[in-house]
């Protein structure tokens, strides 16, 4: 059975599978921006950490797309 945990993603409550990683979130929420910036609990996450960083209950994740605007 897949247990779910609660996280905050870009200010919204989301339920994701236990042991989800940043890489999973990027794929699951279809974040295709190659310049994506990720923060985990207010800390910048380097892209090489995405597949190793496992999320915990009540973690806060921010996806920042620096290419917005014009």
Automatic annotation (TrEMBL):
InterPro entries xrefs: Beta-grasp_dom_sf, Mopterin_synth/thiamin_S_b, ThiS/MoaD-like
Record SUPFAM superfamilies: MoaD/ThiS
Gene3D superfamilies tied to this protein: 3.10.20.30
Top-rank taxon, per record: Bacteria
Pfam families named in the record: ThiS
Name of the molecule in the record: Sulfur carrier ThiS/MoaD-like family protein
Species this protein is from: Desulfonema magnum
Lineage: Bacteria, Pseudomonadati, Thermodesulfobacteriota, Desulfobacteria, Desulfobacterales
């Amino acid at each position: 059975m897949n247990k779910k945990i609660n996280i905050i993603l870009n200010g919204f409550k989301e339920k994701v599978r236990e042991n989800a990683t940043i890489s999973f979130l990027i794929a699951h929420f279809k974040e295709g921006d190659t310049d994506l910036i990720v923060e985990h609990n207010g800390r910048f996450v380097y892209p090489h950490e995405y597949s190793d960083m496992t999320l915990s209950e009540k973690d806060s994740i921010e996806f920042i797309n620096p290419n917005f605007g014009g």
